[in-house]
Amino acid sequence: AQGRISQIHGAGQTHHYQYDSAGNLTSHSDPSGAQSNYRYSAQAGQAHLLTDYTDPLGRLLLKTEYDQDGRIVRQTDGQGKTIHITTDVARQRQTIKDRNGHTTAYDFDQRGNVTQITDAAGGITRYAYDANDNEIEVIDPLGRKTTRAYDQYGNITEETNPLGQTTRTAYNSAGQITRITDAAGHATENTWDSATNDLTAITNPLGQATRLGYDPKGSLNRLTDAAGQATSYHYAKHNGAQRKQSETAPDGTVTRYGYDSHGNQSSTATSAVLSPGAAPTAIQTASEHDAAGRLTSQTDPEGQRSSYHYDAAGQLTEETNPLGQITRHQYNQRGDKTQTTHPSGLTDTWAYDAEGRETRACQAGLCTQTQYDSLGRAIQTTDPAGHTSATAYDAAGQVTSATDPLGHSTTYQYDLAGRQTQSTDPLGRSTHYRYDAAGNLTEETNPLGQITRHSYNAAHQKT
After folding, report:
1. 81-113 burial, b for 16+ CB within 10 Å, e for fewer?
2. How far apart are CA 264 and CA 275, in angstroms?
3. Which of 197, 235, 101, 181 is nearest to 460 (CA)?
4. Beta pairing partners, 345
5. Summary count for the chain: helices (H), strands (E)
6. Which residues of 16-46 are buried (b: 16+ CB within 10 A; e: fewer)?
7. Phi then psi for 176, rounded to 5 degrees?
8. Strands 82-88, 72-77: parallel, antiparallel or unpaired by DSSP?
9. Whole-structure pTM value
10. Distance CA 137, CA 27 (A)
11. Residue ranges of the domains in the chain?
12. What is the rounded CA–CA span in Å between residue 258 and residue 265?
């Protein structure tokens, strides 16, 4: 015996694990009997490097190849699409070419921290670190700088945005956040129980507190909001685990929960007063689960039952509604849904690019197509009528223009903190926006020069 886990048994369910002579996990079987398999490199010195992953349907979903030093050089998914990884040790650079052929480069310092990322569009993000490898500075592709300061334990104590506005965070000796002060000086405070480390109160900048209470086992049993409205919770041991048995809302509505022998929630019963003066009405739902914990049936308060079926990989393949009508689903090798057939016989289909992004969605034969740029952002959408809309972005991923099917464009501008400061419609009419230090919208000036002002209290609630 090597001390490896071969079985995990609980709540009537068992997981099985098998290993090779090198101690590598070679298979896992879930409680339903679905088995996943793993293979490892046969090269000398690489016995623990995973090369193949096969799912319970027998599909090879991931194949990984390594160089002589054990670094990943290629990964191929179930669709046969490959990611290529090149590592230049001398230059401390790694490049990753995605399944669509777009390359992202990563530069590292001597300690292995990422110092620069060059995206597929040429945008560069730079990073700087302190002596403890804490990230202290980030400069985005537009040159906007965010800085951070840390305490001796590595907790972020200050974060300053590109506008110079600083948010401060304080901690107790256990590393728990005790105070967050926004750039406008408004503070939210957390109170902790020093004996149990439980959060007992959250006080907003107005001094309004939400309070939390716990039972002897540490489960939340009472939550009182700032208005004094309390919700209570009751727990009981079920199959060796603490589970919520009931919840009582501030208005007295009680919801009770039931569980099956595996610990899955199997019923919900709510006793509610539906009209003034009426007796409480019980509203019940029921559900069943398979050995893997997947929902197999659901019965609504009207007694209407729906059922669900899955393949060995856990993908939902059939849904049967209370009328006995069946909806069927199909998937590709990567697990993306490719087809849904409705009880009427109408079919919805989906297509994806090599990175798994949806490129075509068809409902009853009416298709919408989407194109993406090298960074995976949607840049063009064509509706079933052939009308095309386009979206453009800046180097930081912010939308700079949106063009409708008639060629009319609306443009957008942003401040250094990424907040929208101006939008200009297709007729050239501009609306301007201003914000306070906390990021709240304070003014909107429409194309006629008319100003709408917004004011807020210390808790950022509009007044």
Report:
1. bebbbebeeeeeebebbbbeebebbebbeeeee
2. 32
3. 181
4. none
5. 0, 42
6. beeeeeeebbeeebbbbebbbbbbbbeeeee
7. -90, 145
8. antiparallel
9. 0.89
10. 44
11. 165-228, 231-291
12. 6
Q: Determine which helix (DSSP H) or strand (DSSP E) holds 367, and give its type and residue range.
A: strand 366-372
**Residue carrying structure tokens 């230090």:** 437
Q: How far apart are CA 100 and CA 88, in angstroms?
A: 22
pLDDT digits (tens, 9 = 90+) for 427-460: 999 999 999 999 999 999 999 999 999 999 998 9
Tallying the residues shown for the chain, one arrives at 463
**CB of 114 closer than 8 Å to CB of 108:** yes
From 155, 153, 205, 151, select the one nearest 177 (Cα to Cα): 155
What is the SS3 assignment for 143? coil
Question: Mind listing the pLDDT tens digit for each residue in 59-112?
Answer: 999 999 999 999 999 999 999 999 999 999 999 999 999 999 999 999 999 999
Tokens of 405: 């099917």
Give the contacts of 172 (CB within 8 A, at least 6 positions apart).
178, 192
DSSP state of 278: P
Q: Which whole-number Å values give the CA distances from 126 to 101, 159, 284, 299, 399, in the listed order?
A: 23, 17, 55, 54, 22
Residue tagged 């537009």 (tokens): 142
